[in-house]
Specification:
Length: about 375
């Protein structure tokens, strides 16, 4: 099927191709699931194929001269009991097959229109124990000639988040807040953005994107802090990628760390919204990395202020190795402000008052933190 190997993808060792202690990659991996979906949140829209894997693998990808037949080879991998043929979105894919030969598994995709391999993304996602997700290999195939249907003005709860109509404003803050925040450099990181929508919730039959909710919290938080005399550095203040569209996780996250590090920020706050398969789960969690004693103190102060201000379940303060906590040089915290998959919480997150209330709680936490270390 493949006439000419145009590009070889060796997935980054730090993401999926993790070597074993002996230096060799784990053998006899297995594809445990294959699923696909049409995504309209990119420009152009695209078809995403995701394969769950039992272990780390090497992957190679190629396309034929005509640009119509695309193939990914998963080395030393069996296809297990996964189906062998798939009918996918005909705008991009005539059909796809999964087969096994000589100990390798082949994903072959017959494309509806000629494509360039540079336009097809193949990337890996590391396991996520919290979300109970295994190793994954993802293929994004653009829908040639289609236009993006998701925009900020689209009639959906995702696009009509408070951030889309937010106007910069001044806030009345206490003299105590001004005394501890004046001159402090604080980096605010609204999680996700642009081509990375983050977690997805639903309200009224419409999608709600995490990227919009985090920004709707970050913008009033920025204005509260600047009203108190702090200098605020934003990793993003609009719906955009920080590193660039479709970037892998590490470059995107490092770009956010670089903004904070280059600004010599005194504190870094990354804002996220959690999700889970069980819609009854809810709560807020403060994550820190113990690179200094101040990291824990910042997480504790931010979390306690949230508990004091909001009626939301307490999921605690937890140590973790999230990228933005590890690779920022200043005290940092990643705040998960409720679950977008919880019906009650998503109503609050998309209300006119909810994001501002969360911003106020984060502001109070920063005031308490800087007062504690002064």
């Amino acid at each position: 099927m493949i006439k000419k190997l145009i590009r070889l993808f060796l997935i980054l060792a730090a993401i999926l191709m993790l070597p074993s202690a002996s230096g060799a990659l784990a053998k006899d991996a297995q594809v445990t699931a294959l699923r696909w979906t049409s995504r309209n949140d990119g420009n152009p829209p695209f078809v995403r194929i995701a394969m769950d894997l039992s272990k780390a693998v090497h992957a190679e990808a190629a396309i034929d001269d005509a640009g119509k037949n695309f193939e990914v080879v998963l080395k030393k991998t069996s296809m297990g009991s996964v189906a062998s043929q798939y009918d996918m979105d005909p705008r991009a894919i005539d059909f796809a097959t999964l087969s096994e030969k000589d100990g390798d598994t082949y994903l072959d995709v017959a494309l509806s229109k000629p494509q360039k391999i540079d336009d097809i993304r193949v990337f890996a996602l590391r396991p996520d124990a919290k979300m109970k997700k295994p190793h994954r290999l993802v293929v994004d195939i653009p829908v040639i000639g289609a236009k993006q249907t998701y925009t900020k003005k689209a009639s959906s709860a995702a696009s009509s988040s408070p951030a889309s109509s937010y106007k910069k404003q001044s806030y009345n803050v206490s003299s105590d807040a001004k005394s501890v925040l004046k001159g402090k450099i604080i980096c605010i990181d609204p999680g996700h953005g642009g081509t990375d929508v983050g977690a997805i919730g639903h309200i009224g039959g419409k999608d709600v994107y995490e990227k919009n909710i985090t920004l709707s919290i970050a913008l009033p938080l920025r204005d509260m802090l600047t009203s108190a005399g702090a200098k605020v550095v934003m990793t993003r203040d609009t719906d955009k990628d920080v590193y660039g569209p479709w970037a892998d996780a590490d470059p995107e996250l490092q770009a956010r760390c670089d903004i904070a590090n280059e600004a010599h920020a005194d504190a870094f706050v990354s804002i996220h919204i959690d999700s889970f398969s069980n819609s009854s789960v809810d709560g807020t969690t403060a994550y820190y990395n113990a690179k200094s004693s101040k990291d824990l103190l910042l997480a504790q102060m931010m979390h306690q202020a949230t508990m004091n201000s909001l009626s939301i379940p307490d999921r605690g303060v937890k140590s973790n190795d999230f990228y933005v906590n590890v690779y920022t040089t200043m005290p940092s915290v990643l705040m998960e402000m409720g679950f977008i998959t919880n019906d009650h919480r998503v109503k609050m997150l998309t209300s006119s008052w909810g994001p501002r209330g969360i911003a106020q709680s984060l502001f109070n936490g920063l005031v308490n933190y800087f007062a504690a270390i002064s």
